[in-house]
Structure to design on (392 residues):
């Protein structure tokens, strides 16, 4: 393999990495993925808004359409949604592979599996600096027992929530990380059109629990929290009055874990290194959905890289990527971080009151007409300011 052949090396073969590669035109790109198969292991509930699906290029792998949600607090429940399809449930393994196949149709993109990338440390300098002689980061790639050192014009860290690439370049600093645990279960008799969302701090403190139908008979049930997620999930499945009844005959057929980053970094670009997707914190803090923001940002990243390389622009030009994706999503993420803090500091009594408030004030139709899974700040602020009298 001629590693010096590549203008851009992307670390991570998830959706963000592959969509970035797909959108880099006329320059040689290598995507490296540490696992032996794109799309595994699963770390996702696979629920994507219809807008998100469009942004991802309508990949293969959809297993169910979703029209709304039942939202439960300890003692109340509301049903939002109607006949309109608002989201789709995906088999991520199929989806991720399909996106990778699409990227590979771009003739300048190669994919290397079982290849782990790591920023080269400059031993002669301070440990936090990793520049080579051109002030560029270099990459050490371990593939099948062979080690290669690469100095491409650009490195993209699309390496997910933990982003060791971002951390070793000191871009990704301390941020809140939630741990997710999820079971796919068969033999569940469920209305396939609606997801079930439980906000109940007897079972989960810092996030929510979901039951997502994957079509007839099959669901994903999972939660994220700051600690002990698997035991909390088992407790929920066995003891929650509604869930334990719904899942009484359910048999687990897939277990998955994953991490969710909350919040972004000061910059997602440093010299010739760019971060995209979860590594850059492109995630909705309220729902944990990252696929829509990641896909849209990956396109921006690919376009900026193409311009930079084609027009031989100064390296500072790459910072436009940071500006542009934050123009799209910073406001939503900032709102989500604040809203989450308020929501998860509430006790179950207050959460019951919120659902009761929505019912009493006839807000369900308003939510159905105006709600947007990807940009919840607009409707939430409208409800909060008109009914309670302040804005977040
Ligand atoms: C429990 C859970 C449920 C979720 N549910 C949803 C949902 O329903 N809807 C939604 O939109 N989002 C959801 N998300 C978030 C979603 O999964 C992520 O936002 C999305 O996968 C991010 O894509 P990505 O390409 O940035 O990262 P990833 O999909 O994590 O891909 C990163 C890739 O990089 C590879 N990699 C990492 N380090 C290296 C390295 N050093 N060298 C080589 N390869 C490397 C990894 O193997 C991986 O394949 C969920 C997350 C969790 C944890």
């Amino acid at each position: 393999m001629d590693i010096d052949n590549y203008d851009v090396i992307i670390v991570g073969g998830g959706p963000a990495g592959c969509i970035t590669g797909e959108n880099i035109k006329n320059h040689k790109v290598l995507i490296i993925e540490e696992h032996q198969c794109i799309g595994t292991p699963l770390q996702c509930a696979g629920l994507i808004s219809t807008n998100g699906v469009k942004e991802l290029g309508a990949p293969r792998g959809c297993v169910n359409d979703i029209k709304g949600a039942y939202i439960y607090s300890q003692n109340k429940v509301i049903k939002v949604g109607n006949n309109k399809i608002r989201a789709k449930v995906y088999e991520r393994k199929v989806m991720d592979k399909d996106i990778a196949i699409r990227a590979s149709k771009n003739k300048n993109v190669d994919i290397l599996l079982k290849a782990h990338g790591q920023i080269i440390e400059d031993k002669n300098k301070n440990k936090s600096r990793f520049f080579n002689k051109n002030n560029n980061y270099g990459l050490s790639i371990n593939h099948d027992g062979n080690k290669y050192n690469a100095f491409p014009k650009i490195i993209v860290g699309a390496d997910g929530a933990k982003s060791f690439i971002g951390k070793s370049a000191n871009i990704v600093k301390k941020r809140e990380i939630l741990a997710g645990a999820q079971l796919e279960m068969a033999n569940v008799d469920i209305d396939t059109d609606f997801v079930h969302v439980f906000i109940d701090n007897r079972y989960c403190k810092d996030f929510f629990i979901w039951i997502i139908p994957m079509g007839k008979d099959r669901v994903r049930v999972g939660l994220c929290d700051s600690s002990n997620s698997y035991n909390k999930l088992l407790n929920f499945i066995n003891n929650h009055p509604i869930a334990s009844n719904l899942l009484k005959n359910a048999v687990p057929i897939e277990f998955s874990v994953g991490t969710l980053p909350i919040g972004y970094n000061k910059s997602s670009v440093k010299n010739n290194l760019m971060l995209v997707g979860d590594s850059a914190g492109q995630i909705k803090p309220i729902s944990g959905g990252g696929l829509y923001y990641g896909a849209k940002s990956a396109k921006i990243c690919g376009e900026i890289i193409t311009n930079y390389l084609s027009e031989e622009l100064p390296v500072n030009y790459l910072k436009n990527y940071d500006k542009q994706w934050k123009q799209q999503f910073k406001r939503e993420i900032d709102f989500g971080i604040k809203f989450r803090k308020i929501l998860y500091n509430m006790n179950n009594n207050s959460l019951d009151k919120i659902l009761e408030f929505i019912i009493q004030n006839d807000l369900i139709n308003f939510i159905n007409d105006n709600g947007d899974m990807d940009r919840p700040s607009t409707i939430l602020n409208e409800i909060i300011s008109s009914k309670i009298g302040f804005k977040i």
In short: The first helix runs from residue 15 to 22.
